[in-house]
What does this fold into?
Amino acid sequence: MPLKLFSRSAKTDASLDPITIVSGLPRSGTSMMMQMLQAGGMEIITDNQRSADADNPKGYYEFERVKKLKDGDKSWVKGAQGKVVKVISALLEHLPNEHSYQVIFMLRNIDEILASQKQMLIRRQEPTNKVSDEKLADLFMGHLTSIKAWLNQQPNIRVLYINYNDLIQDPKPTVEAVANFLVSPLDKQSMMEVPDRKLYRQRS
It folds into this structure.
């Protein structure tokens, strides 16, 4: 399957370092991309409050204050210039618009996302039948359509869409695309060593 990428130019302030955002639906490969960018030499923002576990054995790479964006906690964002932070797709619209962003947006087969989320709930002994898979799939697809349209309208945001399924099969084309998108001297060989096919456990 060919690499499915999309990028869009944006008017940005060249005097400021853009903030790199790794985004996507939960269980779409965002943690792996964070690890790849760190391996490539970029500075990431994480507080390590959420430890690695069976679902993400290499860590979640989260920053807890991101979850408070919708509540108005945005003062930390300026300090993220020139760095990388993970922001789930549902919170992208709450980023302050006075900054420039370059977003690496992870896409993954919806059936695999649903299966991965279900396994996570099972491990945590939480109910898995609150919403049907069909309903969740519809909600996720609707959200992706909406957030892509929103991203395309933002003059301060550039976007690169990465297909997780293609990345896990052959990292090299994705690593090249990410390096070109970020225009950054990344350690591409180290990045290519991050994806672990043994952790690709929910396959469609």
The CA atoms of residues 40 and 187 lie 4 Å apart.
